[in-house]
Amino acid sequence: MPELLKQRVETCYQQAETFFKRPFPRPQVSFKLRGQKAGVAHLHENLLRFNLQLYRENQEDFLRQTVAHEVAHLVAHQLFGDRIQAHGEEWQLIMRGVYELPPNRCHNYAVQRRSATRYIYTCRCPEQDFPFTAQRHTLVAKGRRYLCKRCRQTLVFSGQTRVE
Length: 164
What we know:
Number of strands: 6
Distance between the termini: 33 Å
Main location: cytoplasm
Cofactor: Zn(2+)
InterPro entries: SprT-like_domain, SprT_Zn_ribbon, Uncharacterised_SprT
Helix content: 25-40%
Structural class: alpha+beta
Binding site for Zn(2+): 69, 73
Organism: Pseudomonas farsensis
Radius of gyration: 23 Å
CATH topology of the largest domain: Zincin-like
Shape: elongated
CATH superfamily of the largest domain: Metalloproteases ("zincins"), catalytic domain
């Protein structure tokens, strides 16, 4: 499946070369991106990273819009240098002029949020609990203290957890 994506990257570069009448070095393409981002362009490494899960779930739009979006970042950087804004005029010019696509900054793909365990902390205040992340819970185990803003007492782990 990533072959189509790599072909689309090449097509985007060929379009840019035709439009600007100059060659562009091809980037390394990685599929090691997770989370909410569909793609990331690493300008100084000439590297594109794509989220395979979002690609699989949104293949048609991903190939058309997301790949062009990320390639446009690299092309803009190579044409105009470091001093441009990520989604500024130069990038927008490439999206509209070269790819004839809207210069959308963000995708609107449905992203599955993973569930997270929260560690429930309490104080003397009635009907109030404080859900801590695993990272914060670990800091408490190492000696960090957190205070309730209302009663100023140290928050204490209740022994309970919940999944959000």
